[in-house]
Structures are given as structure tokens and as C-alpha cells.
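Worked Example 4.2. Read the sequence first, then its C-alpha cells.
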Amino acid sequence: MMPRPERRSSTRALAAVCAAALVVTLAVAALAPRGRAAESAAASNPMAGDGMWIWYVSRAGGTAARIAQKARRNGIEVVFIKSADAHNTWSQFSPQLVRDLQARGLKVCAWQFVYGRGAKAEADAAIRSVRRGADCFVIDAEGHYEGRYAQASTYTRRLRSAVGSAYPLALASFPYVDYHPAFPFSVFLGPGGAQYNLPQLYWKTIGARVDEAFTHTWVFNRPYDREIMPLGQVYLNPKPKQIRRFRRLVLAHDMEGVSWWSWQHAGRRQWKAVRAPVAEPSGYERYDSYPTLRLGSQGDLVAWVQQLLRGGGYSTPVSGYFEAPTRSALLAMQDDAGLQETGNADPATWERLLEFEPLAVRWTKKGAAPASGAGAVLPEPRSADLPAKGYEIPPGRR
């Protein structure tokens, strides 16, 4: 569940946490965008364009006719409607509502909040949502899923197996990857996972300027090589000029879509800012870099580097800890690619790493599982036990 508007953040100081406490650091070099995500076709993405999230249909007009009318008036092309919470499907996301909204020209995405307790049952609730006619499906996984690699693996495998390899799935989670070293981004956004990444980029809740929050999110999410379409905020009464700036940054980063949390929390000023014409910011230069990982780095980004190295034929444990074997593998890869041999996952090295198909992993608690199914069977990475470095978005009351 997304944070509720009454939960104001007292975490403005979190912006300094990254610089003070993280082993992962931003690289200075800027590089041109590339990768599988950059090559994705917008035409096949039902989440492309302008979207609005609906928590309760009853508080968003209550009927398809009212929702569609307001959506057209405000330039909304896709609605994200809550369809399930854990293993419980919500009756508001009915086949009839979906058909009626689609008939009125809207694309309809279902979304589910997941906890990682009973992953199979949660996946089954997601499957039921998809079968009610959803054009796309979003997994809202947050703090409950930190450290739950085995559950994330079970959930994504079961869901993907049922909906097929091409069905549009997205992850909506924390925007600052580096704050959450134990969150299984590499599972939800890895092989067989979601094709789209919708980080919850609530700059006002985070307590940061729009540009600062946007750049941090952009740089630390790029390594997963999935199309990034940020989820911005219209709750907590953000200033219209901030919403317009957010939209301009989306254009500047060539993103296929943007959406907003949430319909029921947006005031008149926010709706107006969402629909107002905007242009790409003049003179803006985006920071096309990547995080730099080195000896001592820990967390899911390290596990992802290790999966990419393994997929490229270089030997290293997939532990989430950057230790000597990982450095040796990177040195060998850099030598083969004619790159500067730093032994670090720096921007130039990320460019090469992302040309590899990552090792597909089936995570389990102990690494022991039936032989059926593709992918290496591994125990959860050691980094799954790491605590969060901070919560840029405070957990809402459940």
C-alpha cells in the first residue's frame, strides 16, 4: 500500500545518508543511455503515456463513466486500480469495470500490494487480477519484501508462468535502490520478472528537491536495464510547479510514461498541473551515469553485477558481497573488453555488463529445490540479511 497523505515525512536529512554511509557511490563520468530497456517499443507498452492510480474506486467517481470523463478532461490515458492485497482479490476490480473503462478508451492496469507471506497465494491473486481483463499488472512490493529473495522468486516464477513471457508486468517499489540493499530488485526486475520499473518517486515525502530525487532514482535504477516510468506524487498538496518540473524531467529522460499517486488525493491544483502542457526543460543535461561498486560494496546491486558476470561466462559467487572473486571476474572481463582494468563496476564497465544476459536464478532458502525449471538454484544471497540504510518513503499505516 502506498503511504497515506496524513503520514508527513520528517526525513529531509535522509538526502545526506547516501553520501555519508553508503559504500556504493555515484560515478562522475556520464555516458549515453543504452541497453535492452532503451530498445523497448513504446507501442507495445500499455503503461505508456499519462496515468493515475486509484486506491478505492468509490473515491474516484465510483463508476466507469465518471472515471473516464474525468480522465479525458485531464489527459489521463491509463488507470492503475487496486485489484488485490496479499492473497485477497478486491471485488472493485471487476471484469465489468475493466471492460467499461476500456470501452471508453482507457487502458486499465491492476495493482497488488504484496507482503511475501504465502508467495504462491499472492501470485494466485495476481493471476486472478490479470484474468479479469487487465491490460497490465503492477507489483507493489515494499518493506515487507526486504530480505525475501526466495519468496520473490516463487512469486515471480508462478505469476510469469501463468500470464506468459510477453504480458506487461511492472514493479512499483522504493526509488532509492541504494537505501535498500536487501530488497530483491534483481528478482522482480531480473530474468522472468517485470519488464517495467515504476519507482515511487515521491519527492515531497522524501524531503528532497524534484531534480535531486529524480537524479538519484534514475542513476541507481538504470543498472536493472528495465524501462523506467516513475510514479510521482499529487498527494500531500505538492506545488504545481514541482509537478510540472517532474513531468519535464520525464520528457528529458525519454521515458515512455509517468503516473501519479493518487486520484483520490489530488486537489484541483494538482489535477491542473498534471494536464497542463509542458515541454522538455531548456538547457537541461541529464546525468547518464551508473553507481560505482568496489571492494566492500554490499547489497542487491552487487548480486546483480555477479549475475551479469556469471551470464557473461565469468566465475564469481552470487552473494551480494563485493569480495576478491568478484573483483577478479571484473578484471578479467575488463581485460577481455579492452576497458581500463579498475576491478570496479564503474560506468564504462556497466555498459559492457549490460550486454550480457544475466544468470537466471531460482532463489530458495537453502538452495535445495527440485531440478525442474530453468535457472540456477541458489540459496538467498548473504546480503539478504542487511538492514535498510534508510526509508526515504516512511511505511504507511496498514
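Now turn to a second chain, presented in exactly the same format:
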Amino acid sequence: MYLYSVEKTLNMSKKSKSKKHYKTLLISVLSLIVLFFTIVGVRYYTFVAPNFSVENDKKAYIYITPETTIDDIIAQLESGGWIKNSTSFKNWCERKNYTVNHTGYYQITDGMSNKTLITNLIWGMQVPVRFTINNIRTKTKLASRISQQLMLDSAHVMKLLTDEEFLKTYNVDTFTVIGLFIPNTYEMYWNISAKKFFDKMAKEYHRFWNEERLSKAKNIGLTPMEVSTLASIIEEETNIKKDKPIIAGLYINRLRKGIPLQACPTAKFASGDFSLTRILKEHTLIDSPYNTYKYKGLPPGPIRMPMIESIDAVLNYQKSNYLYMCAKETLNGEHNFASTLVEHQRNSQRYHKALREAQRKKQK
């Protein structure tokens, strides 16, 4: 009886220990599960969950140059008000061993996570920019406009724009290079190299000068660059669309007859003073190949980057017998045209009379 009681007590003790061991094991397993999901949750919250917000219909971008650091990236994100938790982003950059190794232009989208942005940065998954070019007179202005929109140094671009050997590869020179750029909006990567940029502009130039336009230029007896040169003069003469084909026809008539163009915009360009509102006798005497008062024919290159509208006005010029033009007495930017010098002088008298009257009224 005594032995049975002892044995029963031992069995109960074993069962008790077994239950405690089971409970301990269960608690340990549950703790591990909780820890696992906690880690997963924290990882999700800091890495996969949305960490960036951008207002509806707005665009958000960051720029990365060779000098940009992670702190610089965070500063851009914070200044735009797009990042929710800067610390988590920086921590994950460090955990992923991200170093700024790809320059570019990167978009921030609403709901983007640290993971998405960091992956884009690591792999250089940037988006293209819309590069717009128009309304440019000089190479200096062109270099400046390029550097304002792309990761290209204006001094380096200017050096290429004046490098005869470099420009030869594109069949242009320092006089005609501005005509290589067709005013438009183009998509390209912000960190494009200077060489690839010129290659793209040359490709767009040849795409613009399709068979139809080349055929029209040939029929006129002008090269594409000569068409652009004439178009640049016309663009400086007027912004009245309907007048452009008429002025184009007038200048083509003068070219064919060997009469100097005597275009005021070319004398202004030769002077280098683009603030001039009137061309005086002294300006027409400037010794420059651009001055069509002094030299017959077209200048050696465009005096500005002509718009497509102006180029097409030359290619589709209006045929006439006009050889002269004068600002209209309405003083609205339109012109009167004439076939003879006598008729032109009458137009000129009407214009100057209207101008004097307008000046008198202004003085009262």
C-alpha cells in the first residue's frame, strides 16, 4: 500500500512537471511568433509601408548630381514636404548599403515606400525630363538655357558650341550651329551627356527636315540652313503670322535679283545691341558678314533660333513681285508691301506721318 502511494505521488509529480514544461514551451513559441510578427511589422512599417505623400495632380522630383549625399536627398524630400519619416528612410539607406552612385531625375509618387524609392535610386531608375528650347538669339543664351534644364555645365556646352572640329561632325559651324536646334519640347534624361545631347538634337533636326521640307527648300534654291537663316530674319521682322510668307517671298525676290536684303534685324544683330528699336545710318555701316545692308545675300547663319512656323513660312512663301516693305501706318506690327521704289516711298511717308502723330499725342 505504501509503495503504491509513493508511485502515485511520483506519477503526479511527473505530470505536473510535464505540464509546466509544456506551458513554458508554449509561451516560448508564442513569444517567438509575437517577436517574428513584430519584426515583420516594423520592417513593413519602415520599409514597405507608404512613407511619401504628394498632393493630387502635383509632380514631385528630386535631382541627384555627382556631389549629392543621402542627407542632400533627405533635404530635398523634406523641403518639398513629401517625406513622412526621414529617419526610417536614412536607416534603410544604410541597411541597404546605398551610396549615391547614379545621378538623375527621380520622381516621388504618392504612397511610395522607402523600398521603392531606394530601389529606384540603387538601379538608376530615373524618369525623363521635358526639355524645351525656343526664343534664343545667341550661343551664350543657348548654353545657359540648356544648363538650366539639364545636368550640363553651361561653360562646357559653350565650349562645344564654339569648337569647329566638334561641330564638323554635325555638318555645322560656329555660324550655323544655332540652326541645328529646332524649337520644340523633347524628352530626355536629365543627366544626359553633352555628346548624347548634341546627337539627339542632330537626330531631331534630320527628322524635322523630312523629304517634303527638303524638296521645298531645293525648289526655292536654298539649303535647309539657309532656309533657317532667312526664317530667323523674318521672325525678327514680325510676329504677325499672315505677314511671314509675304516677307519670305519678298526676300526671295531680292535674293534672286541680287539686291541686298537690307534687313534691319541683321544690322541690329551685327551691332550686338538687341535693345535697339530703330536702325540708324551708322548701324547700316557696321562691317559684319551679318549686316545685309553692307553685304549681299544671306548672313553666314541664323540671327536667332527660328520657330517652326517661320521656317515653314519660307518653305511655303507667297509668290509676288514685292521688293520693299514698310511698317504699316496702323502701327500694329503689320506691313505694307510694294513692287516699286516709288510705291514704297509713299508707304514710308504714311508710316512716318502716323508715327509723328502718335508721338505728339503721347507728349500731350
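Notes for the reader: Strands lie at 60-64, 104-108, 129-133, 184-188, 324-327, 335-338. Residues 33-42 have pLDDT under 50 and may be disordered.
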